[in-house]
Automatic annotation (TrEMBL):
InterPro entries for the chain: 5_LipOase_AP (IPR001446), MAPEG (IPR050997), MAPEG-like_dom_sf (IPR023352), Membr-assoc_MAPEG (IPR001129)
BP GO annotations: leukotriene biosynthetic process
Role, per record: Required for leukotriene biosynthesis by ALOX5 (5-lipoxygenase). Anchors ALOX5 to the membrane. Binds arachidonic acid, and could play an essential role in the transfer of arachidonic acid to ALOX5. Binds to MK-886, a compound that blocks the biosynthesis of leukotrienes.
Organism of this sequence: Piprites chloris
Disulfide bond among keywords: no
Keyword line: Endoplasmic reticulum, Leukotriene biosynthesis, Membrane, Nucleus, Transmembrane, Transmembrane helix
Membrane topology: Multi-pass membrane protein
GO cellular component: endoplasmic reticulum membrane; nuclear membrane
Protein's name according to its UniProt entry: Arachidonate 5-lipoxygenase-activating protein
């Protein structure tokens, strides 16, 4: 909602009709940042749900909240200069990678249970709970 509100405000500020890309460079930055966030959202939702369902809910929820904060930082950084958005982008990639690895660990644990009868769920939850605070390190 914040991104859409900023886009609408810049659209009205630039006196353009609707959401057309012709306008000021500020409108172009807001529009591009909004599109980038919108395109990254389905990937985020997929890995968040998989990590939460297949591995551990608490670290996945923590990483999800961190990702939303990081996308906000990316968006606001994109409004300034494009180099200001780089830390938010890189931080977001690291969180997506963490969620993806959690999903892979959950899938591997499922197949280990199915084929070999070995359950490593407690170990995986302990590791992910221990690693998730490391996401706060810039």
């Amino acid at each position: 909602a914040f991104f859409a509100t900023k886009l609408e405000h810049e659209s009205k500020h630039c006196n353009s009709k609707g959401f057309q890309r012709q306008g000021s460079s500020c409108f172009d930055r807001v529009y591009t940042a909004n599109q980038n966030c919108g395109h990254a959202y389905p990937t985020f939702l997929a890995v968040l749900w998989c990590a939460g369902l297949l591995c551990s809910q608490a670290p996945a929820a923590f990483a999800g909240l961190m990702y939303l904060f990081v996308r906000q930082k990316y968006f606001v950084g994109y409004l300034g200069e494009r180099t200001q958005s780089t830390p938010g982008y890189l931080f977001g990639k690291r969180i997506i990678l963490f969620l993806f690895l959690m999903s892979v660990a959950g899938i591997l644990n499922y197949y280990l249970i199915f084929f070999f009868g070995s359950d490593f769920e407690i170990h995986i939850k302990t590791i992910t709970s221990a690693i998730s605070p490391l996401l706060l390190i810039p």
